Amino acid sequence: MKSSKSKFFKCLVPVLGLALVLPTASIPVSAAAGPVASPISVKSVEFVGMDAPSTPELMAQIYTKASVKVTYSDNTEKTFPLAYNKLFKTTDSIGGTIAGVAVDSKGKPIMDTSVPNNPQPFVSDDPDSNSLLQVQGAPATGLGGNPLSLITHYEYITHNQSGSSAYGIIPASMSHTIIDQNKTTGELTPVKLSKVDFSGVDGLWIPCNGSLTPWNTHLGSEEYEADARAFEADPKQTYVNPFVQSYYQDQTKTGNPYAYNYLTEVTVNKDNSTSVAKHYSTGRFSHELGKVAPDQRTVFFGDDGGNTMLFLYVADKAADLSSGSLYAAKWIQMSAENGGSADLQWIKLGHATDSEVKSYIDKGLKFSDIFLTSDKAADGFKAIKTYPSGKVEYVKVKPGMEQAAAFLESRRYGALLGATSEFNKMEGVTVNAKDKKTYIAMSYVEKAMEKDSKGTDPADDIQVNKISSGVTYELSLNGGQKDRDQAAIDSSYVPSFMKGLVWGEDLAQPDAKGNKAADDKVANPDNLSYSESLRTLFIGEDSGMHANNYVWAYNIDTGKLSRVLSTPAGAEATGLQFVEGLNGFNYVMSNFQHPGDEMIVPDNLKAAVESNINQNFNNKSAGVVGYISGVPTEQQMLAAVAKDTKPEPATPATPAEPSASNGHNSSNPGAQPTGLIGIRQAAKAAGISLTWNGKTHEVVLVKGKHKLVIRVDSQTAVLDGKTIKLPLKTVMKKNTVHFSAAVFHQFAQLK
Known about the structure:
By secondary structure, the chain is of the alpha+beta class. It contains 14 helices and 45 strands. Strands 17-18-20-21-22-30-29-28-27 form a nine-stranded antiparallel beta sheet. The chain has a five-stranded antiparallel beta sheet with strand order 39-40-41-42-43, with helices on one face. The protein has a four-stranded antiparallel beta sheet with strand order 4-37-36-35, with no helix packed on it. Helix 9 (about 400-410) crosses helix 10 (about 410-415). The model is unreliable at about 1-40 and about 645-670 (pLDDT under 50).
């Protein structure tokens, strides 16, 4: 186990990774928050990306090998490795409740009876949005950490037991998970999960993405609205009745399409109960999500689908989305390259309260109560083309029904007033508060966004060049704006200009892994989240053009794009939320859904990839909820360099603990680490297998042919069958096992 000083130092940082480089694993948060003796400051921060997966085994996993490189004012550098942490699979039971289970209006599991004599609860494989938050005054978890809450969407259920599609037919759900945040390491542990009750708002329809409001509530969504015109003509053309009958467990129940496709707001109360509101005044369309501006009044939206629209909502009061004004944008094109650019003109659709819009629904209002239609061009009728119809329609609003049209048929009404309804696959939205920018993902820039070469569409505002792999747009936000009628818009966050910021590259032919878009660029952006402190835009993919979907970190100042996470082939990266400095820790929440679904990998890889996915994720039936750890806060960056320059007392040498008179000091290549480290984080960072036995309180570490067994409250360990004495006792602190840093370091170097 002896080695030269130079060899020892070369092993030190990469082996211990998170455990000794990051202060979260080696010093308490209070120390990280304390004064830093050195005048050194952070000069720059950048993500160091990982390679794309290159083997069938890696293509079937969710993992990261990325890191964060910090450059200090004295030009020294420190690298902080990242790690992916699974919280749970959708098939896991947390505190007695299956995470992804679909429930009816009474909170009971909805049963899948598609296979005779084998009823099973429907369980989603499609986790989506996350909101990790802290409620002041929440009860303790019992594990000694900070009590947190996690709201998670389960967007839909892909298949029933017999293999038939269950999309849209089985009601969707959200869960509230009580999370224990380790006060020393920041590790998150799920404690108890319960389903959020949506019975007061007639259930939950296809909840896609979501966001955390500035007032600490979760803002959910309902996308892909049913066509109320088609439903009135023939209910079987939509999922509305099967959805309602499943939710209420009543096969005679008739649904109302106007009851769905709004923003939903979930409040977590101090007693860990939840309450739900549906904000009808934010308009009815294919809500990907809503994102609230710093003024707590202005809301930006994604409108998913083809022939969709860019909307804006301005609430009457801060932190209250129960009443406000709804606007739709007209695209006034300036250029066509790289996603194009345009000035935005806003058209006011109307003003309403939630209760006003809900009253129309309660009255049973139908499409024909709002609109008159014609089969062809006729006086007084205007041609429009919008989702979900996707066809040219000739319509006009009945007198006195303008408000109902604006909030129940927002897109059709917007098109009648001249707003642009040519956006395609508009997905995630996030906000850069300092620069007053909003970012919006357009997953596929094609179809209605291209020039109408046939001249058959009612309007052709957007005429940009096709990029099937999509574009993330940047929108400039300004105050003092007026709508088309020259009325003032009461917001300082009105988008006025829109341009492509990050775009993909379509390939003429698939590459060796089946990629149809360049693998070193974003393809089909979906989830977006922004870090103010890191000046970084995180982009998650929902790509049918990449064999594996990724999460990327894009530095908005330097333009550097770094791959920071890879998901299993056929899966979509979802649930993206950058959590900034929560009790001293940063997190990148990130899930994936439907692993192995619609894979595009070539035949020579497909069998091996699929076999690994089936083994890893319950035969493709389980999605995963989790997070990336290791992204340091500024305090942790400074504390890490301060620790390197602070002398530590010498530790007497033992057979397993060489002299470490200078502690862990980057200026001394011969230095050994001293003290205790969190063993789980250290093992994960070093790629060492770890097993915990709760009955014996033993941790088993395996590295190649070597095995180290340690026990809590013991000052000995067993290395390859031989007992060794430890310089420090192994202890359990805050639900985390802490072990001798020096001994772990030496074990990690064994060949």
